[in-house]
Amino acid sequence: MFKEFITVIPYLKKYKFNYIVGILFLIIIDVAQIFIPQQVKRAVNAIADGGFSMSAILGPALAMVLISLGVSVGRFFWRYFIIGASRRIETEMRDRLFAHLMDISSDFYQENTTGDLMARATNDMNAVRQSMGMGFVSFVDGIFMSSMILIAMISGNPRVALFTILPLPIITILILFFGKLVGVQFKRVQEVFSTLSEIAQESIAGMRVVKAFVKEGYFAGKFSATNDDYRDSVIDLVKTFGLFFPLISFLAGLSTAILLFVGGDSVVRNRMSPGDIIAMISYLEMLIWPLMGAGFTVNLLQRGTASLKRINAILDTKSSIQEDAEAVPLSGVSGSIDLAAQNLEYTYKGAEKPALLGISFELKEGQTLGILGKVGSGKSTLLKLLPRLIDPGPGMLGLGGRDVREYRLKDLRGCFGFVPQVSFLFSDSIKSNLLFGTPGITQARFDELIRVVALDKDLKLFPAGLETVVGEKGLTLSGGQKQRVALARALAIDPRVLVLDDALSAVDAETEEKILANLLQERKGRTNIIVSHRVSTLRHADRILVLDDGRLSQYGTHEALLAEREGFYARIAGLQELEAGAGKEH
């Protein structure tokens, strides 16, 4: 169980001062509380002796008040140091988890859902924090408190004390049994919570599609069924505690009954004073908390173990894209950064056939490469390989005369301005989304970008101009507007290679023509890679690459490919020309 806690050892070392000071206060409090029953014993014996006077009980009463005051102050400090440290550990671990999620390769997100990752960063992290806080306290407090209470009871009357603690081994067995059961049940609770989070996140994020297909009832039912499953799993856990703690209370009450029977007999036989038995009853009542604390400890540690296992599963996942220890900065490349592919191939994990096979081409700096192909022909896979969003094989893909695997990842990816077909915008203003990569550009450059992507004509449509908040994922913008904002965002970083993955598919042909003309004039020395299903877009390219089922079927200039009458490119060009002609007639 404890092997999962190896992850938190560095944090415990970092905050060892907090834990040491907190434990000292905890021990001082435990010791102080042991003296309270002794004061009660003094007062009861004074009364039982028949010579009752206010002065006889004033001393014990004052001592109990002072001890209680000290205990209250001590409790504040152990909470401040230990609970405060657990909160800091939670914060730092959540930062570490999020940073790891930022660094891990994109294929990880194809296998893990957003809702599950959110649950691990919130619910599971909360369970870890509780195990590092109250779980730690109840563990330490249980050991010291129970040890000192047993010492005090046995030193008072060994025979009575030994009879009284007979039920304690049974409590230990119960704690071990229920602890294992709690671990299994809590893991189930966390897993169902992850599923619930995923359904809620997916339903809300896709609300447009849900409403368009009138599927509100379906998703409400799906959420309700999972919510019921979550309720049932939590109730199962509650039932376990509902059985565990009453059993502990029963056994504690049994100990009290044994004490009254055996201790009462000793008082009658003058082997114990009335104050002794009252003190022992007080000690027994105080012993209930360490016994309960043992249950809390097992509960919290089991929860923490289950949650840490889920968190460690992410932290232990290595990115499939690794940077070489001797990676060089891209800035160190002298001359042009020509792109070259040599027998490039790639097969996705678990796939039976390669997504790309035997792709070779060359692209000089400043040139434009067009890519055409059917759905699933490997276009997006090829683009992902360029900045190593997925990893090419050694020697398959070169940039500036070096294998792309030899560059620092940050430098390599910073070289590319990537605009996907499905544009993601943050829930912020249009301006903030546009300046996402480079917040410090000049106003003149900002205005130029607005003009280049033909967004200037849309400004009057936005209620607050460029300060209009677009909503989650750009919900309030049209598809074409989102694509143009995303394009301006990529241009703002002034990339050496601009990659457009069918990034103008939602823009009308006339606006697309204007944008492409602006792009080619805006920075003539930039390398451009354009994926499009429109031949009218690709005709601007210096070279055009046609993919078919992951293979290179055609490669050449626009004119050369048109000359191949039986080729895919010429057939698509002819069909689109007929479609455009029919559109003009109507």
Please provide the ordered H/E string of secondary-structure elements: HHHHHHHHHHHEEEHEEHEHHHEHEHEEHH
Q: Tell me the name of the CATH class of the domain at 92-315.
A: Mainly Alpha
Low-confidence stretches: none
State the helicity in percent bands.
55-70%
Sum up the overall morphology in one term: elongated
The CATH superfamily of the domain at 92-315 is identified as ABC transporter type 1, transmembrane domain
Number of helices: 20
- Give the distance, in angstroms, between the N- and C-terminal Cα atoms: 73 Å
Helix/sheet category? alpha/beta
DSSP E strands, number: 10
Known CATH architecture of the domain at 92-315? Up-down Bundle
The main sheet orders its strands as 6-7-8-3-9-10
User: What's the Cα radius of gyration?
Assistant: 36 Å
The third-level CATH topology of the domain at 92-315 is ABC transporter transmembrane region fold
> In this structure, how is the largest beta sheet organized?
6 strands, mixed
- Beta fraction of the residues? 5-15%
Mean pLDDT: 82
Features:
six-stranded mixed sheet, 586 residues, 9% strand, alpha/beta, 20 helices, four-stranded antiparallel sheet, Rossmann fold, ABC transporter transmembrane region fold
Question: Can you tell me about this structure?
Answer:
- There is one protein chain.
- The strands form two sheets. The protein has a six-stranded mixed sheet with strand order 6-7-8-3-9-10, with helices on both faces. A four-stranded antiparallel sheet has the order 2-1-4-5, covered by helices on one side.
- The mean pLDDT is 82.
- Among the domains are: 92-315, ABC transporter transmembrane region fold, CATH 1.20.1560; 327-415 and 535-586, P-loop containing nucleotide triphosphate hydrolases (Rossmann fold, 3-Layer(aba) Sandwich), CATH 3.40.50.300.
- With 586 residues, it is an alpha/beta fold.
- The longest helix has 53 residues, at 216-268.
- Helix 2 (16-48) packs antiparallel against helix 11.
- It has helices at 9-14, 16-48, 54-103, 108-111, 114-132, 134-156, 158-164, 168-205, 207-212, 216-268, 274-315, 379-385, 409-414, 430-434, 443-452, 479-492, 509-522, 535-538, 558-563, 568-585; strands spanning 339-346, 356-363, 368-373, 397-399, 402-403, 416-419, 497-501, 527-531, 543-548, 551-556.
